[in-house]
Amino acid sequence: MPSNLILFNKPFRVLSQFSAEGDKSTLAQYIEIPEFYPAGRLDFDSEGLLLLTDQGALQHVIASPDFKLPKTYWVQVEGEISPEALEKLRQGVELKDGLTKPAQAERMAEPDVWERVPPVRHRENIPTSWLSLQIREGKNRQVRRMTAAVGFPTLRLIRYAIGPYTLENTKVGQWNYIEPTDNLLKEVNQFEEQRKRKAASPNRRSTGQKRQPGSKENKISHGEGVARRNTRPKSTSRPHRK
């Protein structure tokens, strides 16, 4: 039986969705399997690892920041990334929507990856460098905003890993069935148990529970509304307020 989890190496300028949007490329051009949907997103202008599944609980656990699956990015930036900039990334960067959580940030050699189409546009006399950045949250376009905030704009962004899953042995534009790890299945089981407990909470009325005629709890008397309305007649001499 095929697995319920797919690992896809998303190319540059491909939407992380199956539905058409103008003339942009979508996942439908690469994956022809019904009922599988992305667990999280990867920006149109970013590349790399995207996980898809046909199970709602598994999708939630992978995509939700609450479960803290770390995401590792390989980032090409404009300029020679400095030790000071790396330290700022490690401590957290102040963005418009708040301070980011501390990240793992290290300079790295240029990785042996596929050529991007179209290629990154280089400026003469301005070098570029690469860093590995691991985060555990998912603010909108977070990595790009983080590197820009420390003075090194992102030129190319590749998501290399989500938790234990990496791009190893998966070429750009290709996908593979993968098996959920034991830890991931444990998280899914815990999430489903929590959802069942909430559904069975005594504070929630069962949809099959009927109100008993004459019940004091359910009956609203003539003198009692939800806001305990005053039932005394209004004076006709009092002016009406608008």
UniProtKB/TrEMBL annotation:
Domain Pseudouridine synthase RsuA/RluA-like stretches: 4-149
GO biological process: pseudouridine synthesis; rRNA processing
Region Disordered, annotated ranges: 191-242
GO MF, any single term: RNA binding
UniProt cross-references to Pfam families, sorted A to Z: PseudoU_synth_2
Protein EC: 5.4.99.-
Top-level taxon of origin: Bacteria
InterPro entries assigned: PsdUridine_s_RsuA/RluB/E/F_cat (IPR042092), PsdUridine_synth_cat_dom_sf (IPR020103), PsdUridine_synth_RsuA/RluA (IPR006145), PsdUridine_synth_RsuA/RluB/E/F (IPR000748), PsdUridine_synth_RsuA/RluB_CS (IPR018496), RsuA_PseudoU_synthase (IPR050343), TruA/RsuA/RluB/E/F_N (IPR020094)
Stored PROSITE patterns: PSI_RSU
Cross-referenced SUPFAM superfamilies: Pseudouridine synthase
Positions with biased composition (Basic residues): 229-242
Compositional bias of kind Polar residues: 203-212
Entry keywords, A to Z: Isomerase
UniProt feature, compositional bias: Basic and acidic residues: 214-227
Leader sequence segment: none
Family statement: Belongs to the pseudouridine synthase RsuA family.
The protein's name in its UniProt record: Pseudouridine synthase
